[in-house]
Amino acid sequence: MDKNNLSVGIDLGTSNLLIYVEGQGTLFNEPSIIAIDRATKKVICVGNDAAKLVGKTHDKFDVIRPLQGGVISDINLIQEILLFTLNRIFSSEIGVIKKLVICIPSEITNTEKEAIVELGHNLGIENTIIEQEIKAAALGSGIDIFAPKGYMIVDIGGGTTDFGILSLGDVVLSKSIKIAGDYFDKQIIDHVKLIHKLEIGLQTAEETKILLASLTGPYPTTEEGETLSYEAMGRDLITGLPRSTIIGAKEIREVLLNCFDPIKSVLLSTLEETPPELSGDLVDSGILLSGGCSQIPGLTTYIEEIAKVPVRLSEVPLTAVVDGCKKLLKMTSKYFYSEV
């Protein structure tokens, strides 16, 4: 392998940024967050270091997620976070990158796609290619999307839930809804405010979701078999003083089931619009789930009851997209080049 002619794949996710380097594996997998000095506009840190600053208000820096709900809120900050990260990986020698594949949410506009390609050019990488995350996730999960057969993937990430029907190497139909992990966290915050009269932060909400989330079947339990609960700490809405409250798994299931109602609607509309021949294929091929929130206990059963076809979880739900990048980079460009 020519170390001066490397290929790089990037999963530009709302929650996490993952970077794969040919021959070296996934070298970066951290939150898509950047901290900027207000005075100098220079990058202070990105990823895990920036995530530690979330919720810690400060008059000298801003902590920003450049992607919000699967939409680019600031293309310049996307460039800054990539430049900072790639410089760190390649010791400021980005010139060794000769091919770059960037995977994006399906709802990004053509203008945003053009901006991302231009972003790669600005980094000095002329051979910059973009692909939809659902396509990469299917490849990364081991699906032969080039076969004359229909496949469906549902990717539940941080900002969006994306639905895709794939066949013969292309996305035949795709839909997206801005309801996913980040939205779940906000709904948990609202629930705790309403029921417990306590204001909690996003990190506490996420911890609660991770520990207590489920959609069907038994509630999460302790090693002793007792239903799990979580002691959340925050600010009392009445007194303004610090306080804690106990949140139960049953509460969180009710919150999530409400969140999944619109996801259910888009799932059904996607299936209804799928061409008949491909729809018939789904009886055998079923539906593949990927993304961080696809791991919610009981989700496969929940989707099976709605779609009436087999549902399985990707073996690599968190890294399916970047694993797909690895395969895309090995293919001839005619198979995966996306024109904008």
Automatic annotation (TrEMBL):
<dbReference type="GO" id="GO:0005737">
    <property type="term" value="C:cytoplasm"/>
</dbReference>
<comment type="function">
    <text>Forms membrane-associated dynamic filaments that are essential for cell shape determination. Acts by regulating cell wall synthesis and cell elongation, and thus cell shape. A feedback loop between cell geometry and MreB localization may maintain elongated cell shape by targeting cell wall growth to regions of negative cell wall curvature.</text>
</comment>
<dbReference type="InterPro" id="IPR056546">
    <property type="entry name" value="MreB_MamK-like"/>
</dbReference>
<dbReference type="GO" id="GO:0005524">
    <property type="term" value="F:ATP binding"/>
</dbReference>
<dbReference type="GO" id="GO:0000902">
    <property type="term" value="P:cell morphogenesis"/>
</dbReference>
<comment type="subunit">
    <text>Forms polymers.</text>
</comment>
<keyword id="KW-0133">Cell shape</keyword>
<dbReference type="InterPro" id="IPR004753">
    <property type="entry name" value="MreB"/>
</dbReference>
<keyword id="KW-0547">Nucleotide-binding</keyword>
<dbReference type="Pfam" id="PF06723">
    <property type="entry name" value="MreB_Mbl"/>
</dbReference>
<keyword id="KW-0963">Cytoplasm</keyword>
<keyword id="KW-0067">ATP-binding</keyword>
<comment type="similarity">
    <text>Belongs to the FtsA/MreB family.</text>
</comment>
<dbReference type="InterPro" id="IPR043129">
    <property type="entry name" value="ATPase_NBD"/>
</dbReference>
<protein>
    <recommendedName>
        <fullName>Cell shape-determining protein MreB</fullName>
    </recommendedName>
</protein>
<dbReference type="GO" id="GO:0008360">
    <property type="term" value="P:regulation of cell shape"/>
</dbReference>
<feature type="binding site">
    <location>
        <begin position="158"/>
        <end position="160"/>
    </location>
    <ligand>
        <name>ATP</name>
    </ligand>
</feature>
